[in-house]
Amino acid sequence: MRKFKTESKKLLDLMINSIYTNHEIFLRELVSNASDAIDKLYLKSLTDSSVQVDQANLAINVAFDKDARTITVSDNGIGMTSDELEKNLGTIAHSGSEEFKAENAQSQGDAVDIIGRFGVGFYSAFMVAKEVSVTTRAYGSDECFRWTSDGIEGYTISPVTADDPIYRAQSGSDIVLTLKDNTDDVSYDEFLSEYKLKDLITRYSNYVRYPVKMLVTKSRQKDKPADAGDDYKPEWEDYTELDTVNSMTPIWKKRAADVTKEEYAEFYKSTFHDWADPARTFSLHAEGALEYDALLFIPGQAPFDLYSRDYEKGLELYSSNVLIMEKCADLVPDYYNFVRGVVDSSDVSLNISRETLQQTRQLQAMSRRIEKKITSELGALRDDDREAYEKFFENFGRGLKYGLYQSYGSKKDELADLLLFWSAREEKMVTLAEYAAAMPDGQAAIYYAAGDDRERLAKMPVVKAVLAKGYDVLLCTADVDEFCFQAMRDFEAKGLPKAYESDEAREAAAQAVADGAEPELEDRTLELKNVSAGDLDLATDEEKSAAQEATKANEDLFNAMKEALGDKVEKVAVSTRLAGDDAPAVITSEGPVSLGMEKVLSAGPESGEAPKATRVLEVNAAHPVFEKLRAAQDSGDKERLSLYAGLLYDQALLVEGIMPTDPVAFASQVCKLM
């Protein structure tokens, strides 16, 4: 017995048990090797006129024998001599395919696609086999040889005579795997079935360029007997037929003009196990230092587990049409985790097992290009088919918002224009750019209200007050909305009508437009403001002055109300947001945490006390209730003033969609007042 070169036992054990993690890929590796062998013969026929090859008959055959517990992978490729067996299979990590590619780099072109690279794929067979034999005959030779090994100590190479049943009449190789005995942990018998082998071929080697054939069981109706009566019922029988089980030509390698929308949809549904057609299909072809093809899909519906911990993002990664990873997470950012598709490149740097990628600039470059393509296609969908885009956003918009929040706003240039929000004034979904384009002169911010119900938000006094000023309000009902806006801070609106600092400049510009000039446009940074937080600065100077005077004149009243409410509020003051008898009071907040954020954070799974909003009770001095407060204070009725203050505070919380701390006490106070 010949010994493997290098520290064979250690290295081979490492190859079999450490490099590969998935037993199933042994068939992928053997089929890839067979494809390489055929490619070598085909290239030889292109460069040597004496070599005649019938391209139509080039194929790979896979068979199994359940009784003998063997799997056979055969090809009619270039085959190997005894010396080549010694060099290619006796020297671990020597890649004959890689050597062949280097020697024929100038001549192989697109007609040949050698897959092998590391010289270790063959040894993956020992993950499932206790013995592997290779019977091979080199092209142009009459000699046939057999290589046999148990994958432990070494191997034997022996000649095969013409009278031996395993002798090959033509060039090529037969690889026979005798499977290991079953253990408590692994049942190797699963590979001895037509269904399992077909599944492995279609999953990993579906797009190998040569036919992969198997004897496949089919069913057909028997001929009706001549003497059968009218009550004859058709009978069926099973039969086997040599059938091609792989597709060979990847759909992403075809020209888009040659593929119908229905064919793309069928590929998407069968590959990614979805029953609905994709919302959008697009492809990407990159050339240059890094070449790859990508076929990407925006699903028509969200998978049920999209926002669960178990959901795995990623695109299928192929190298030379061979599946390397079913979900390569590094190819898409988290906020595009819903995108499905395939990426195929022979240039990516794989690790030795071809199961994972090396982290290289190539991978980063592919990821950036794919991300830009997705962003561009989503923008096109938004502009071309608004109804379809709104449906898409309903399914996946939350992920885009999380992308902005998790990137601390650094991705707002890429994602902000893709967001949709409900316009209280327009009563429809609008983009931030559309909101900005519809703003009246003088508006310097985008206003929004956050809560869990759109109808309730529209009725809130603070929302109605902003609408009354002529400014639209975005009604945000997703729990991530306000966090998204906090991360963004502002929005860069493009192409807005120029804001002039003086009436003279405005009038001059208007006259210029009347005389035929183009209106002046400018980009403007708009702050994002919650209508319930901080000072919106919407009041006129007169309104601000009146509020300050009223606050000062009623300082004793507000101090008494603050004392009654304790640490529930930071202060009590006259509101500049409320007018007339719309509402007697509102709760607003100061600082980075709003009431809406407090509500979301308190409902989260994190242990410990959630951050609280710094609450301010703003009182409407023009409301009739204010006179009741003033009367209670003037009469010295502290008990009644405390009752009024508590009721005002709790009812203002209810308007915000927040339950009072003590609902029973609130109900008791209402009854007491009645």
From TrEMBL:
Keywords: ATP-binding, Chaperone, Cytoplasm, Nucleotide-binding, Stress response. Residues 22-183 form the Histidine kinase/HSP90-like ATPase domain. Coiled coil: none annotated. Residues 1-354 are annotated as: A. Residues 600-674 are annotated as: C. ATP binds at E29, N33, D75, M80, N88, S95, G96, R354. InterPro entries: HATPase_C_sf (IPR036890), HATPase_dom (IPR003594), Heat_shock_protein_90_CS (IPR019805), HSP90_C (IPR037196), Hsp90_fam (IPR001404), Hsp90_N (IPR020575), Ribosomal_Su5_D2-typ_SF (IPR020568). It comes from the Bacteria. It is found in: Cytoplasm. GO terms for cellular component: cytoplasm. GO terms for molecular function: ATP binding; ATP hydrolysis activity; ATP-dependent protein folding chaperone; unfolded protein binding. Belongs to the heat shock protein 90 family. Molecular chaperone. Has ATPase activity. Homodimer. This is Chaperone protein HtpG.
